[in-house]
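FAQ: What does a ligand-bound record look like?

Like this one, built around adenosine-5'-[phenylalaninyl-phosphate]:
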Amino acid sequence: MANPSSTESLESLRGRALVELRSASAEELDAWRSKYLGRRGAVTQLLRGIAEMPVEERRRFGAAANLLREEMEVALANRQAPVAGRARIDVSLPGRRPQTGRLHPTTWTIRDITAAFGAMGFQVVEGPEVEYDHYNFTALNIPQDHPARDMWDTLWIDRIDADGKRRVLLRTHTSPMQARVMETSRPPVRVVVPGRCYRYEATDATHEWHFHQVEGLAVAEGITFADLKGTLYEFARRIFGSDRKVRFRCDYFPFVEPGVDMAIDWKGQWLEIMGAGMVHPRVLAGVGYDPEKYTGFAFGIGVERVAILRHGIDDIRQFAANDLRFLSQF
Ligand code: FA5
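The answer part, i.e. the structure of the complex:
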């Protein structure tokens, strides 16, 4: 034991104790506390020796020793916190996988659909979601006040032109790109156009007010309805496999003649996935193509409906609900 009357011994005790504390492991901290601060610890012993000191030295030494004890208690507490924190790390635990982002099922489906048509020679192009009435309707053989406009409940942009008419809308389908593509290129044309569409529609399990379509257009000399059917059957085979049942039915769209729709078997029923048909001669003439020389087919596929059929999704509204429980399945 150091001479209790010596301030020097307090200093050397302090140095030794703090050096030991710095290198002590979590298990050694208790032993350190007993050695220096415990009932029989070095600091306690020093304080006990005070009684034997000359009176004038007692006060000075007592104050210094008490300060040392406080300093050592604080040093111990500081040391315990990080050591305790470190002691909780169990290196044998399996790592936690960081959450990673992934593609939306709609994006996957668009990629698969465009890849299927890409393999058949179709190029991918894109067009505007905010569209002119002209391309969404008029160029597609649906003039102003034509009753067929009611087939697509339209969301109009709040812009009134000088003549009092609304001309800008959110496209109700990807078909406006038919006219845009033909206006800017000469036949042969073979394109697919993925994109978002909007309709002022009540929603249910198979209808959303915004959804995606992939438009298709092929125009050249000598294209027939057999080409349309062959292409769409090949698409269905690539996307749904050869065993899935496919149904073609006559349907009406003002911009094709004849028109059809295609449905795929779904829970013992049919789910319609697209409208299609031979491009109407008036649409060809409208963009300056000679309808006597060129023929073509077009189709518009509902992307979310394709995903519903492939993955057994029961409600189309899940696509835009931003629920990770749904999104992380893909
Ligand atoms: C059209 O939109 C036509 N433009 C398709 C077309 C293109 C016909 C070229 C002829 C030639 P329709 O409104 O039926 O047609 O929509 C086509 C497909 O989009 C539907 O079969 C369906 O799969 C999908 N679809 C339509 N409305 C919705 C909706 N509210 N929610 C989700 N998918 C929809």
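Follow-up question: can I read anything off the structure? Yes, for example: The pocket of adenosine-5'-[phenylalaninyl-phosphate] is lined by residues 173, 175, 199, 201, 207-208, 211, 213, 253, 256, 259, 272-277, 298-300, 302, 304-305, 316 (CB under 6 Å).
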